[in-house]
Amino acid sequence: MESEKSWEQHALVNELIEGMEVARKLKEDWSLPSSADSRNSLLQRILSSYDKALLILKWNAPISNSQTMHQESSQSPLSIQTSPLREHPKEVHHQQLKQNSKKRFVLLGYFNSTSQHIQKSTLYTCFFFFFRKMVPKWTRHVRVNIDNGFEGPLHDGYSWRKYGQKDILSAKYPRSYYRCTFRKTMGCCATKQVQRSEEDPNAFDITYRGSHTCCKGPKSQDTKEKPHSNVDFHHAKPSLTVETENVTAHPLASFGCTTQDNQHSLFSSMVLENDPFSQTSLLSPNTAESSYFLSPSFLVSDGVCNKPWPYSDAAGIVSADTSTTNSPIFDFNFSLHSVGIEDSKFPFDALDF
DNA sequence: GTTATTTGACCCGC
DNA sequence: GCGGGTCAAATAAC
């Protein structure tokens, strides 16, 4: 346990120092006629560092603290639509214990692994735990004027590939499942679900999950999607109405896809969907709006990661930017440097599990 | 030939 | 057992 504390503290200190150093550099650059991109990328790095640091802190928060913080934050008048806790407090406590234990296991398993290759079964287990339970998820309600010839859900600037459609029991319209086109080539695990709204057939409810690590964001437009089937609401015609509302889960959920972030990386998907603590205290919009967790990608107007809605690299650690197969990929990342793993060739063989 | 979509089957959590 | 999410073979589109 002492060693755990040691590397956690080490990582934490490293992140804070890095954040400070980059902030200093930003300050120096501020008066220079350097590009906005440069400043934005520095800003991105700073926030990324603090994201990491905060996540490490959160990771190590005592259960009692977590619970207290959750209760406090859930009472916050600013917190919106965090998942209501249905569980009895005792159950919550047990769940947190369980989750904390799992989280710790995953992190320590990674950091402390002396083996050159982590067992595939471990990776598999870790992946599903993270992806299904911890990857951020948020919903957007998007309205589109179908009369204008748009036949399908909005194109959000990313390139998606449909991999399934399902009739939902209580829903009038089927739900379509999309994943990032670059999942195979770049290991991007972002997915989205699109479902036509029952109340308003011209509207779509789009649920995003996971972060783009593919660097093929809105600006690249590297897509082979049929233009008629998707509407790019970044460049929507005036007649196109776009509404966003009910960002139900994680407005800060990492959608970081800057090149820089991929190198630097990110705890991206370790924002915990089911973790009451992270939802309410680390991720609730009130926290974001008011303090540390607001992503630069949301703040900047011309930056490389100027997302159309509050995407964030919050909690990003390291992009395990793996070129891969269809296999599940870790979509969370952490700074190897910060924990003293300097070898950039750290063997993370996600290719063949 | 390559890439995307469709759709039935399968997996897994509840 | 049910239902949501994903897989993967078949098919379509380019």
UniProtKB/TrEMBL annotation:
Q: Does the keyword Membrane apply?
A: no
Q: What is its main location?
A: nucleus
Give a yes or no for keyword Transcription regulation in this entry.
Answer: yes
A biological process term (GO) from this entry: response to ozone
Q: Name one GO cellular component term.
A: nucleus
Any Pfam family matching the protein: WRKY
Location of this chain's protein in the cell: Nucleus
MF annotations from Gene Ontology? DNA binding
Q: Where is the WRKY domain?
A: 149-212
Out of the domains of life, which is the source? Answer: Eukaryota
Record keywords, A-Z: DNA-binding, Nucleus, Transcription, Transcription regulation
The entry assigns this protein to a family as follows: Belongs to the WRKY group III family.
Q: Which protein, by its recorded name, is this? A: WRKY domain-containing protein
**To which species is this protein native?**
Flemingia macrophylla
